[in-house]
Amino acid sequence: MPILRTAGVLAAALALAGCGTEQHSSTPQSTSTTSTTTSTTAPATTTPPKPTAKDGKDFAQCADGSCEISIGEPVTIAVAGNSFVVKSVADDGLEFELQLASGGTASGTLKGTCGSIMKFYLDGTGGGTGTFCNPDNAPQPAPTPEPGVFQLQLAGLNDHQAVVRMVTG
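^ Lipoprotein, sequence as received from the core. Prediction below:
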């Protein structure tokens, strides 16, 4: 029976080998990937709309002394007994002459739409310019009528058309 004893010892040895304290972990390490998407939106820029004249090209609207018209070429416009003569129109403004009913004349150039207002005294005694600007590019308001004063304002430029406001008081 020695063979049986050897087999029993071998079986016992194998059984003990399976009960050792050494442990092997086969648990895989987990990895995770996080994807972050950041979107940026460019700030909106506001471009002021191109100006349009309230009275269009209807120069007869100026006869009563107040109008807002679009001018694209040389023209003579009657304004409350005075004559506004446009000599030339450019992409940045216009050149004009004003013939007052009192016999006085004035000439100049309207450029820049920041709110420049040219004032001429209807009695022919002189004139001047005032300028104002809206900080947010908002449309400029029309000049307020003043007694005895002819006022011109370049309200805007649009495709070789000058939008001009004329106000008499």
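The chain has one helix and nine strands.
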